[in-house]
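INPUT
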Amino acid sequence: MAVNWEILDIVGGDQALTSMFLFWGLMLLTYFLMQNGLSIFNDVTKSMSLFMLEKALGPGIDLVEGREGSASKTWFIQGMLWLIAASTLAFEGLWLKQDPTALHSLSAWGYDPTASSLLYASNFAALYGGVGMLLVGSSLHIIPRLSGTDLASERNATLVSFLWTLAVVILVIAAHDSVILGLNIFLIGTAMHTLGFVAVAINLLLTVSERKGALPIPGWLIMMGVLADPISVVATVLTGSIQTGTGQWLLAQMVGGTFFFATAAGVALYVSSSASGNPLWSRSLGAATLVGALATVNPLGASNGRMAADMLGVTFEQLQPSSQDGIAMAFLMALAMIPVMALVANLMMTLRGGDAFIENPDSAGIPELNLGASMLLPLAAACLFVQSDALSAAPELSGMSATMLLMAIWLVLVPFSLGAALHLFPTVTGRSLLSRNRARWAYWMMGGGALLGLTVSVMSDLIDMSLIEAAVEDPSALSADVQAVGAILFYGTAVGAIMHSLNAVSGLFRGTMADADRATSSSITMEDYSLVTPTSVRKIIAGGADLDTTVVPVGESDDAGGPTEL
Amino acid sequence: MSEGGSGTVGEFIQGEDEPSSSWVILAFGLVTSLALLVLHGILYPGRDLPVISEILPVFEGVFDSGIWFFILGVMIGVFAIIATMMTEATSE
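OUTPUT
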């Protein structure tokens, strides 16, 4: 299966680096093709793709509606529901770390979960169900807006969301027991997921091909993030590195750094501007985020490639990089701090704008974006340490890598994707969330639960690691007690996810119409302010104006009044 | 009884507002239930509650961990979402 890429193999047989070179080459080719098209094959390819998206599906495509925004709405609602499942699975996994027999009664039904299987399943549910669906939903809204056109096939995108959900259900089941009736159901789930992913990618590509002008940076981040996922798989499979622990780990990091990080970055940058009313603070930093996300190895993620190996049906191998691969990967991970810092700075400054105000600090979605931006840099630095340690011959921090992955998911990726979805919800559905107050409570429950619960879980991990290092035979009750507190605190995340979903579902039916609802939370806003005499900005704001108020200069003269001449 | 005649109500009307005093009734009912449970314990010390004491042993060995209280909370939340979907979709 593996192809001998001797020309690319410039580093003496190190497959990870060879995969990276091939990946970069394929991404450059993708960028070139997106800019220049397929020459004479353009029209044929477009019409064939559109045919495959709609008419080839026969009567199935008529099961869903094709109204504008219906696709994003479907992806949003399913993504939020997946967050409930993911947070519940993660909570149960954290609980079972200190009480392994807590769910033993379920074994009577043939279901015998362990802490690791639950946490593994929760990662699939959160990454591909929650984050993935929310990001795709946002992309299906953002890309047409940035391209100045409509989505190529609204109905296909709506229909594919159900296929995607079914694929995630299978992946979650496979995370518990991958072989059922002699079949490796991971492969079935991956095949269905790939089908859905390709449909979404083609839909977005067709939309971008009809763009009216240059695609802004967030659009490129989303497109390259989506396209880099399958390309990274192709790169590792072609070079054969997928058979090695290093290649599997690299693929997991590449997918994490492109589809999840780059797409989330694009979505977050778009929403930061749209929510604040401020232009994107820096195009250069946006470009640095784009190039950096593709050219470096993002450290956010697991310290092994088990997910990648399982999804592709290859035997999972331990991460044992060659010295040259180890040095190169550590260097590329360190370089990933550049796009991370660029994104955080761009997000923060765009939200803040040129003055001391954040436009709508209280509106749903903005607190989540702030949380994600605040946690990204410290977590990326922490993950860098854990991942660099994992590349060494004798890893010492592997005991906390699973919890670090949970932190990256629940404190960076989920806030970005959920925050964007909550902000775009009124535009997509035509109705606001039912209650802004409930969204605020849900934010505190979700963010607080994840931050406190996982921080306490890391403390428990550190206690365990210390005891193992000290070769203490008697297990400490302190570690289990701390882990129990961590699990209970993390339960707030599940409650927050339920509140968000309830708020969104109720909003679909009873939320105020989007055009009737003002974007700001202030109650003293004015549409227009008539400026009769020169005055200070302070007095205008004190008069009830806000940053959206139009200041209208009114002409005035001291001439005597008279009848209007007709 | 003729429908639409004087003195009859032609259709059902449900108010939109919830009177604050309705919560007093609910709270009173809850307190009364708890008081009766306490009273049962005083009047019949050492004796199990009727009906409930026969049902609970069925679940012994099943819900024997604190995690079930949390899972129950999630289940209530999920059912609340399903109920909201159904009632909102069929309300008009």
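end of record. The CA atoms of residues 36 and 42 of chain B lie 10 Å apart.
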